[in-house]
Amino acid sequence: MHYISPVLWQFLEKWLGNSPLFPPEGSAMSVHVDVFFLFLLLVEIVGVTIVTLMVVTFTILYRKERHPVATQIEGSTLLEATWTLIPLAVFLVCFAWGALLYFRIYDPPTNAMNIYIVGKQWMWKAEHPGGQHEIDALHIPIDRPVQLTMISQDVFHSFSIPAFRIKREVIPGRYSTVWFEATKPGVYHLFCTQYCGTDHSAMVGWVYAMKPEDYRAWTQGSTSGSSLAQNGERLFASLGCHSCHTGQESARGPDLAGLYGSKVRLADGTYVTANDAYLRRSILTPGAQVVAGHSAIMPTYQGQVSEEGVIDLVQFIKSLNSNYRIKQGATAPELEPGQAGTPGTVPAEPAAQAQPGNRAGSAHTTPGTVK
Amino acid sequence: MDSQVIANDPEETQSAHEHSPHLVHHYATMDQQVESASFGMWIFLLTEIMFFGGMFMAYLLYRNWYYDAFVAGSNLLSIQFGTAMTTILIVSSFTVAMGVFCSETRNRKGLVAALSLTLVLGISFLCMKGTEWHGIYVEHHVPGPNFSIETFVHPTDARDVPMSPDAAQHTQIFFFLYFALTGIHALHMVIGCSVLIFLLIRARQGAYTDGNPTMIHNFGLYWHFVDIVWIFLFPLLYLISRHPLK
Amino acid sequence: MSSTSIINLPNQQTARMPKNHYLNSGYGLKSWALTLDHKRIAILYLLTTLFFFCIGGLMAALMRLELLTPAGDLVASDTYNKLFSIHGIIMVFFFLVPIAPAVLGNFLIPIMIGAKDVAFPKLNLLSYYIFLIGGFFELYSIIWGGVDTGWTFTTPLSTHYVNTNVISAAMGIFIAGFSSILTGLNFVVTIHRLRAPGMTWFRLPLFIWSYYATAIIFILATPVIAITMVLIAMERVFGIGVFDPALGGDPILFQHLFWFYSHPAVYVMILPGMGVMSEVVGCFSRKRVFGYTAVAFSSVAIAVFSFFVWAHHMFIMGISNYSALVFSLFSMLVAIPSAIKVFNWSATMYKGSITFETPMLYAFSFIGLFTIGGLTGVMLASLGMDIHMTETYFVVAHFHYVMVGGMVSAVMCGLHFWWPKITGRMYPEQLGKLAASTLFIGFNLTFFPQFILGYLGMPRRYHAYPAEFQVLNVMSTAGASILAIGYLLPAMYFLWSLKYGAIAGSNPWQATGLEWQIQSPPLKDNFEEIPVVDFEAYDYEWLANKTRHEVTNVG
Predict the structure, then answer these.
(1) Which residue of B has its CA nearest to C237?
(2) Is A298 on the interface with B (CB under 8 A)?
(3) Is residue C311 situated within a structural domain?
(4) What is d(CA A191, CA A200) in angstroms, rounded to the nearest whole number?
(5) Buried (b) or exposed (e) across C430-449, using 16+ Cβ within 10 A?
(6) The domain at B55-239 falls in which architecture?
(7) How far apart are CA C413 and CA C365, in angstroms?
(8) Paired residues of A210 in beta bridges
């Protein structure tokens, strides 16, 4: 739009963006969305005006005092065709424009920086690649595409930043992604927009868009000392993963080095790409997709590893170029899985599932959530 | 589409009103009444298809996701039992059809015999279903807290591939769908049998063979529909992808 | 006859109510509770649905009061969640879905097509009692602690995370669903088989066409919500995970099944209103509805297309981009028949002879508000826009414009229009106009600010909200109080008119249609003799000739 009409662009950015009746425009995408919105608003106004004009004109011209006897008219195929085809054309333009925008909003650029978001009743947890954790807040650098990989620990949530015009459902059991590129430093609302229980309206937070240098300073100031991959490495060791995934030819578990992004051949002969979702599935339900040449002996870690733990493990596996670190881990003292203090694990809980309502209470106590 | 049927002139309407004892007052002719009833029944069956449709959709999705668990679940169901139940239902469809025939030919004894046979077949189907459910209950394969995955992790049959515990959990979904589908089908059978008992009592008193077979006709439609649902359930739950008989 | 009105009442000094009619054909509780008369069943439905409307309205009032201030101070957050859940469940399943088909449809369909009753009167009564039982389940879950899942019952929240009366609420909807199915079945068979001699498909009033489309949706969509509700209840009772990802289930499957019903159900909530519009606009313009065939087939088209748009509620839920494309395209297409209708109603007024009685005022309000509601629907169907707007107050405002601005206006319109036929007496015309204007102003003041709130990003179902949204919320609450007056006023003068209203005579509006050719209130059997139809629908010239030559009316 800025190459079509710089004036309109200025209007949008400077005036509308500061109006109390219009949300601030904080991302590169928001102006594109707003231009489309103004187009749709125009369609709306024109449509309502046409109908109102017809109704008002006819009621003035043909009210009973002026026009006591009605003239019977059967209809007109030409008119019917007109008001079928013209709205159809307009709606198809809306469709095409909307679809293009949708694809742009939901297809992340390849160079985007990735931040993990875990939603749970009733807070947002963000995990930066450097190991920074935050709750109900998200610090991001401007002028750089940021991709969020999100998952919910319990029910449906929805991650919404109105100023960036983005929103995506955060679903239990599967990763969803969304991306944006903030353009103006500032503090913006972060909402959960999918009804998620008692404190749904308290599941809000702030997005801090910062200049790159401020962001760098923030990352250094709030690091927890170890990156996600390092947390994952510790968890990997404490769960005893290295006893099978040794990386040797004869090992009981498949080799993990260089696994991320590669094509894996499964026991049933099909191939699957080793992405976040595949690794998560393989940790939580290993029997579902068994790698060719191995038998389904891996136990499930469902209920033992929290969503943050899975993210840590995935980050660790992502970072593995060789089996050097795994061998290092094998010599470290083994920790009891589920022992308090091991980040990313869930302590053993009696009957944590099955009965409705039980989970509502237990969801609070999951460790690995504390910063 | 059917304006000819009801566009009779008023005098004929009047005469029909006087003559047929079965005509309900708000219908003009007997034809109109009979056609309305059977049309209504067909629409009702249409809603029934949509009702089962939701569950078939769920079956389709999870079968795709958890193929191995569905195969393992199928293997536990008895194919002999299933075949017997299918045969019973097909025969009962035949007896219902005979009932419709008898009621149209005003054969009271024949109608009573056909309906009794259908009732016996329907009840024996339900008994077999109950037995099968009981067997599944004994083996702890009813979904819920008592569900046991033991059979799937350590199968006794040599042809079964042992499953990992997490994959075996998904057989719960198979058995849930099994119970939901066969349970709602059985509920339809129970309703069918109850109506059948009512029809039988009336038929003994001479109803339906006095020139008004509509009720039997519509009941027949319902019974055939319930049979057809089973004709879909049998292969989906018992037959597809299972290992062959011993 | 004055030059500004078409109301034509008999001389009040000499006029008497008819000696026999359906209201006095039997007295006592039993004559009502066991009635097979479609008109009495319609009255039963009317009272029941209005009762539910009052509950739903009360919840809405409390919600608006809570939202007066940004902090959650009037009620606790759990209470607020229950308020909007009950408001949604009651208004959708126990008011909007049944009110137009079961009340206006039951009363008018047999009369309009020239039949003595619906095809299956006993089934009709049964479906009322099924509805009542469903209602009791719902009341039980409200009184004993409420339910807080939202009307959408999103899994796994509804199945594993809340401890309220989800099972009884789901069962209430399940049971009431069968009432819809049976009503739909009854209507389809009635319209197919019971039309009077000469009443061909293209002589049917457009009201019948839109109710026919509604009935099709009832028949095909309702069973799916029924089975979905059963699955929810089973999942809660047995702790199985068909919809729970932790146990291997798929919560998205629930969304598909739920919206497969609930989107067509939205058209159940508007199609009957469109039927009312066609009657009223034609009558007060003294003209045949412009483009009869187009309006008739657009109803059927809406019913058909409505089954292919459900996933537009799930654009941000991670359905594949390509299926989002298809559903967006179909959502655009389903808007076309609605546009056709609006243009045809407007064109009907061209060269008409328009008067401005209360039903016509409601019709104007319907056309305006429905156009706004419909076009904002196009905004939401546009994929890229939907991402920002969905799950905010924009959606709330959009569907209230369609359902309250559209459907409730239409119901009020229909009640005023057919009130003289139902009761035999007129409502006070001046008060009626006042109430219609109050409703229009109150409605816009309530819901227009919500469009702005939505674009600003205020999420729906929020108990507390950021302070910068307060001004618009205060406007909305203020509007809601005007809206409440707009509903209370008709309630009072309708009651008043039952005893003191002017005697209406058989055709106060001088309208066409078989229902106006019989006495008001009608006989128990509607017609003394089944009429033979030899005229087209909305033939106002025929009617004018007829009244010129005849002294008395039929019946």
Answers:
(1) B144
(2) yes
(3) yes
(4) 9
(5) ebbbbbbebbbebbbbbbbb
(6) Up-down Bundle (1.20)
(7) 10
(8) A141
Residue C265 confidence (pLDDT) above 80:
yes
Mode of pairing for the β-strands spanning A123-127 and A113-120 = antiparallel
**Residue C358 is encoded by which pair of tokens?**
């209360």
In this predicted model, what pLDDT tens digit does every residue of C77-100 receive, in sequence order? 999 999 999 999 999 999 999 998
For residue C553, the model assigns a pLDDT of: 47
> Which domains are present in chain A?
6-106 (1.10.287.90), 113-221 (2.60.40.420), 228-352 (1.10.760.10)
Tokens 């066991």 locate to C34
User: Given a cut of 50, is residue A368 above it in pLDDT?
Assistant: no
Cα–Cα distance for residue pair C50/C408, rounded to 1 Å: 12
> What is the distance between the terminal CA atoms of chain B, rounded to a whole angstrom?
56
Selected residue of A53, A72, A122 to mutate for chain C interface (largest C Cβ count, 10 A):
A72
* CA dist., res. A223 & res. A129, Å (int): 10
Structure confidence by residue, pLDDT tens digits, A196-239: 999 999 999 999 999 999 999 998 888 777 888 888 888 888 88
Q: A284 and B168 in contact by Cβ < 8 A?
A: no
Task: Report in angstroms the alpha-carbon separations of C534 from A371, B27, C197, C539, C548.
Answer: 82, 20, 9, 11, 18
Mean pLDDT score of chain C:
91
Instruction: Work out the end-to-end distance of chain A between its first and last CA atoms, rounded to an integer number of angstroms.
Output: 43
* Residue-number span of the structural domain to which C316 is assigned: 35-549
Residue C49, in any domain of the structure = yes
Residues 27-46 of B with CB under 8 A from C: 27-28, 32, 35-36, 39-40, 43-44, 46
Chain B positions touching C219 (Cβ under 8 A) are 43, 46-47, 50
What's the CATH number where C137 sits? 1.20.210.10
Tally of domains within chain C: 1
Instruction: Copy the structure tokens of residue B231.
Output: 């004709």
According to DSSP, the β-strands at A146-152 and A176-180 are antiparallel
**Band of the pLDDT at A353, cuts 50, 70, 90?**
very low
Instruction: Give pLDDT, residue B10.
Output: 43
Chain C residue numbers touching B170 (CB-CB < 8 A): 248
